[in-house]
Design a protein that fits this description.
This is FERRY endosomal RAB5 effector complex subunit 3. With 550 residues, the chain is of the alpha/beta class. The protein has helices spanning 2-9, 40-50, 58-89, 95-109, 121-133, 138-179, 187-235, 242-245, 307-318, 341-351, 361-387, 392-403, 446-460, 482-507, 524-537; strands spanning 11-21, 24-34, 270-278, 284-292, 325-332, 413-417, 426-431, 463-469, 513-518.
Length: 550
């Protein structure tokens, strides 16, 4: 069809305009190429200017020109249509293929003929889960999740015990070999034994990794199928087995062995809560909390199924698909991985319980890594096109970016989603460097600006509770004295206050909860000094005592 259109519509036509002025007769002939790509108003103005036409013919010329272009264009389309029909009648064009092309075009461009959007499996499961968790079946769901959690925890405990035994046995073998070194054995024998030990350890770790991956996949499939079936049964009012299906049987709850060495120690929690109002004219109320706690305490599940633990878990589950999500800020290095530091601890906690709604932590990190590589490549290409060859400084910087394309920059962060953690749904992994341990960072430091961007994401994505490390570190060190801590806390308090005041323009003034966490190793004296500082920086709401006059 397209070649025909080019053959029939393209061409040159003469536009003829006649003008009678008294006894004189004028004729203006202008060749025009069809289809006309130029703006008709611009073409009209050029004709008036180039041919010195009088102003009284301006309107008449415009109408005549518009009519000529419109008529000739329609004639061209008519000729094209006639040729297309002739091609169909002669069999030159397959009518079935033509019909499929038209049907596809209508479906893609016309809403009336488009296929209705179908919900994905994840969206359907999310709706079903949201209905069930707000129904009498909620406790049954939590009990089932707890049983799955204990099962995975036992597998992890078995893995740790087996790895420990292997390491002890290999250590004993290496000690014997080292005693014989220089007598009957050489360095090559030691290296060979170390290589065999490493290979054996890798094989054992791979075996347990595959077993855990298979177990979590089976659990996820079983859980989702059971949730869908239960929801369908609840829709059937004549089904008499529903009450038995959602009945809680305490004897069915699996409790992990207390002596397995994997029970998390509970330390004394220090906590202070404040209610503040921010804003110049329209004030918004926010809740602030200062806690001495480990960041991962908000992620870890407790093995014993106490009522308090169940209530925390129930609240997290009920708000999973809501506009009141909970987030957490983790301070990480620039490598997107889970091999060291708090990243490894966080990944371990995530893997202890199957995530029935989102991909696992490793899958999410792989997706983030791909997105970072793609973004770095686009940014690098854009920078090269913009700067060209403007100097060695820019070239050195671009080489540095290219050398570390898989890493993120200071102040950047990536997000992971979770449904299997104790009290949070979203984790912000904020990239910081060793500079945060110095005492000279300012409000323009990448870590501080990263906090601002995180709060902005919270506003735009319905995260109403966010936990932030107040000192921008997870662990204390010798250089972090009391003056250092007070100075850092004051900086973070003031910056977060400014960012929270900006929130009013971001989300219209939504009440939020901000939790400031300090490491567990700080003293009670320092904690209460920080607690006294907070109401001096934020405007804390004061209570009014009303007394009646007698």
């Amino acid at each position: 069809m397209k070649p025909n259109r080019g053959r029939t519509c393209a061409g040159e036509k003469d536009y003829v305009y006649t003008l009678n002025a008294g006894n004189q007769h004028f004729v203006l002939t202008v060749p025009l190429k069809f289809p006309v790509q130029e703006n008709v108003s611009h073409l009209h103005g050029r004709l008036m200017l180039l041919h010195n036409l009088p102003c009284f013919v301006e309107n008449d010329l415009r109408e005549s020109l518009n009519k000529f272009i419109e008529d000739e264009t329609i004639k061209g389309y008519d000729r094209e249509a006639e040729m297309a029909l002739e091609a169909v009648k002669s069999g030159e064009v397959d009518i079935n293929q033509l019909a499929d092309t038209w049907a596809k075009a209508y479906k893609e461009t016309t809403l009336e003929y488009a296929k209705p959007e179908e919900n994905s499996w994840d969206e359907d499961f999310a709706d079903v889960y949201h209905d069930l968790i707000h129904s009498p079946a909620s406790e049954t769901l939590l009990n089932l999740e707890h049983n799955y959690f204990v099962s995975i925890s036992e597998l992890i405990s078995e893995r740790d015990v087996e790895l420990k035994k292997l390491q002890e046995r290999q250590g004993a073998e290496m000690d014997k070999v080292m005693q014989e070194l220089g007598k009957s054995l050489t360095d090559q024998d030691v290296n060979s034994l170390a290589a065999r030990h490493f290979e054996s350890q890798q094989d054992l770790e791979n075996k347990w990794t595959n077993e855990l991956k298979q177990s979590t996949a089976i659990q996820k499939q079983e859980y989702q199928e059971w949730v869908i079936k239960l929801h369908q049964d609840l829709k059937n009012p004549n089904n008499s087995s529903i009450s038995d299906e959602i009945k809680v049987q305490p004897s069915q709850l699996r409790e992990s062995v207390e002596g397995n060495g994997r029970i998390y120690e509970e330390q004394r929690l220090l906590e202070e809560s404040f209610t503040i109002h921010l804003g110049a004219q329209l004030k918004t109320m926010h809740n602030l909390r200062l806690l001495r706690a480990d960041m991962l305490d908000f992620c870890k599940h407790k093995r014993n199924h106490r009522n308090g633990v169940k209530l925390h878990r129930l609240q997290t589950a009920m708000s999973l698909y809501s506009t009141s999500l909970c987030g957490l800020v983790l301070l990480v290095d620039n490598r997107i991985s889970s091999y060291s530091g708090i990243k490894r601890d966080f990944a371990t906690v995530c893997q202890e319980c199957t995530d029935f709604h989102f991909p696992g932590i490793q899958e999410q990190l792989e997706i983030v890594q791909k997105v970072v590589l793609k973004a770095r490549a686009q940014r690098s290409n854009k920078s090269k096109k913009h700067h060209g060859n403007k100097g060695s400084g820019i070239e050195d910087k671009s080489k540095n970016i290219e050398r570390n394309q898989s890493n993120i920059l200071q102040g950047e962060f990536y997000i992971t989603r979770h449904s299997n953690l104790s009290e949070i749904h979203v984790a912000f992994h904020l990239c910081v460097d060793d500079n945060v341990r110095s005492g000279n960072i300012t409000a323009r430091d990448p870590a501080i600006m990263g906090l601002r961007n995180i709060l902005k994401v919270c506003c735009t994505h319905d995260i109403t509770t966010i936990s932030i490390p107040l000192l921008l570190v997870h662990d204390m060190s010798e250089e972090m004295t009391i003056p250092w801590c007070l100075k850092r806390a004051e900086l973070v308090f003031k910056c977060v206050k400014g960012f929270m005041m900006e929130m009013a323009s971001w989300d219209g003034g939504v009440s939020r909860t901000v939790q400031f966490l300090v490491p567990q190793t700080i003293s009670e004296e320092l904690f209460y000094q920080l607690s006294n500082m907070l109401p001096q920086i934020f405007r804390v709401s004061s209570t009014l005592t009303l007394t009646s006059k007698h």
